[in-house]
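User: C-alpha cells for this complex, please. No commentary.
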Amino acid sequence: MTQIQQTTQQPRESVAAGADRILDVEDLHVEFNTPAGLVRAVDGLSYFVREGETLGVVGESGCGKSVTALSVLRLIPNPPGKISAGTVRFQGTNLLNLPEGELEAIRGNHISMIFQEPMTSLNPLYTVGKQISEALILHQGLSKRAAMDQATEMLRRVSIPEPEARIHSYPHQLSGGMRQRVMIAMAICCNPKVLIADEPTTALDVTIQAQILELIRDLQKVTGTAIVLITHDMGVVAENADRVLVMYAGRKVEEANVDELFDHPGHPYTRGLLGSIPNLEEVAHASGERLRLNEIPGMVPSLTDLPSGCSFAPRCPFAVDKCHAAYPPLEEVRPGHWVSCWRTAELD
Amino acid sequence: MATDVAAEIETANDDSAALIRVENLKKYFPIHKGVFSKLVGQVYAVDGISFHIKAGETLGLVGESGCGKSTVGRTVLKLLEPTAGSIHIKGEDITALPPAGMLAYRQQMQMIFQDPFASLNPRMTAGNIVGEPLIIHGIGNATERQDRVAWLFERVGLRPERMFAYAHEFSGGQRQRLGIARALAINPELIICDEPVSALDVSIQAQIINLLMDLQEEFKLSYLFISHDLAVVEHISHRVAVMYLGRIVEMTDKTSLFEEPLHPYTEALLYAVPIAKSGARNRTRQIVEGDVPSPINPPSGCHFHTRCPYAVARCRTEEPKLREVKPGHLTACHIHDRKVTLPLAPPEA
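Assistant:
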C-alpha cells in the first residue's frame, strides 16, 4: 500500500485562451443514419484541452461522449456515421481534412486512446509484447528487438510485476486490471501529447480502478500528457479532472473547473446528477437514517425524437415556456464556467 | 468453528425476529478435467458464512467480483444446492427440501436480477411476465390476475396500458421496474436483489433505489441487497456484510461500518471509492495493491493477507474468526487481538 499525497495541481488559468490548447474541437457535428432516422449523436460541440491538463467528459449512456472521443481520430464507422461539420485541431492542424496517411502518423503516436473493455480491445492471438511493439516499430522505426526491449520497459512503467515474463503472455492469461495496464502501456509507449481515455475503469473492480487511476495520474505528472477522460462516474471526475464538460443528448450543457462545478453546479441536469448519486460521505451516518435520493424524473430522450427547445426541458423541474420553445445558448456565468440554460440567472 | 460463529452472531444481534437465518453456508463448485471428468479442484465460492435478516430490514452484501456474493443470493433461494450449512425461513429448515417442497417457500422469497435485458422473456408480453408467478402459485382467476398486474404496474411506476407491450419496447429502467413488479406479484416477504441498479444510468439508478425503499416501507419487505457499489449499499442498507473470497470479513450496522471500519479490506474499499465533491483531487488515501486471488486456490490463513498492509506471520497460517469486536460489530481480523488501534478512519476529502 502506498501513501499518496496528491498535491500537484495542474496550472489552470495560465496563458491566454488558445495559446496552449493542444487539442481544440470546434462546432463538431456527428450524425448516424439509422433505420429510425437521422441521429445527431453530437450536435455542435466545442471543447479544448491544454497541455498537462485533464478534461473530464461526463454524461449518461447515449449522450454522445464516446462518439466525441472517436471523432477526434476519425474512428467513426462510415457508413452509418458521418462527421458532418466542425474542426478538430491538434497543434493547429485540422485532423478532419488530413489525408488518411498523415492521420495514421498521428493516431497511436501523438494522440492515443484507452478503451473501456481491455479484453475486446486487445488481440487474443498475439502476445502483449508483440502488440505493444507494433506501435513502436510503426511510429518510431525501432527494430523488432529494440521494440521488445522498449515494450518490456513500458510494462515496468505501468507496474506489471515480472515484465520480462509477462511480455510473452497472451491477453487471456492476464487479469482485467493487468490487461488495462497493458492497454495503457500501448497507449503511452510513443509518448503521446493527447491521451483519450474512454471509460478506462468502468469494467474494473473498485480497488483495481483506484490503482489504474493512480497510475494514469502518476504518468501524467511525468509526461505532461493532456488527457480527455470520458466517464459516467462523477466520483472519478471529481478526483481526476481539472476541468469538466457535462453532456446531455449530444450537446454540452455545462463546462467548468472541477471544484467550481461541484460547488456551484449551474445546469439543472448537473444538479440532478449530483443529487442522484448516493454519496458515501454525506448521507446521514450519525442517525443511520436512510434518505431518498433526488431522482431526475423520466428518462433520456431518444436522439431520433428530441423535444423542441432545450432537450432537458421535459425532465427539468425549473422548465418554463421559453425552455420548450428554443434551445438556450451557452453563457459564461463566472470566469471559465459556461452553462446552457435559460434560467441560469434566476436559479443561481 | 461453525457453531461458535453462529453463537456469537446470535449474541451480537438479536435475531429472534429473523425472517431468514443462514448458518455456516458453503457452496463449492467442482472443476472437472479430461476425458473421464476427473475432479481436479473446487471453486470455493462461498466458504462458511452466517447471517440473518429481520422483517423489514435490508442487509447489504458488498464485495468485488468473484467474492461469492451472487452465489450467496442464489444458494439462499436454493436455485443452487448448498454444499454445507443450513438455511432457515421463519425457523423452518429448508436446506434439504426438494424442489417441489420449495414452492411454498418460494412464494415468500423472490429475486430481482442485475441485467434487465437478459432476465425478461422477449416472447412474452410485459403483463404476462409480471403475472406468471400468480399462475405458477395458482392465485386468482384470469380477471383477478389482470387486475393485480395492472395494480402492480401502477405501483412500480409503469402505465397499465403497457401490459401488452413486449420487453424490448421498454427502456433499461422500465425493464427493471418490470422485474420488481414480477418479484412483488405474489406478496413475498424477502427479496434477493442481485445488483439491481448496476446496469442503469445514475439518474435512473436513483429512481429504482427510491422505489425499492418506498416498497419496503409499504409492504414491510426484507431485502438481501447484493452489490459491488459501496455508496449504493450504504444508502439502502440497515446493516452491511463485506465479503472477500467467499467469507464475510466484517458485518455491522451501516453507520459503524462506514464511520469506523474494523477490517483492513473494508478500509481499502472505502479509500478506493471515488468521492463526487470538490477538493476530492487532494484526498489523502491508501491504495491497496495487487489483484483479488483466485477462489480456486485461495491464500492460506486470512484470505486478505496477500494484499493487507497490516499482515503479520500469524495471518498467513491461521484463519481469523468472525467475532464481535465492539458491541454489534463483527470482524474477522487478528489485529484486534493485539489491541492495536489502526489508523482506520473514514475517507477524508
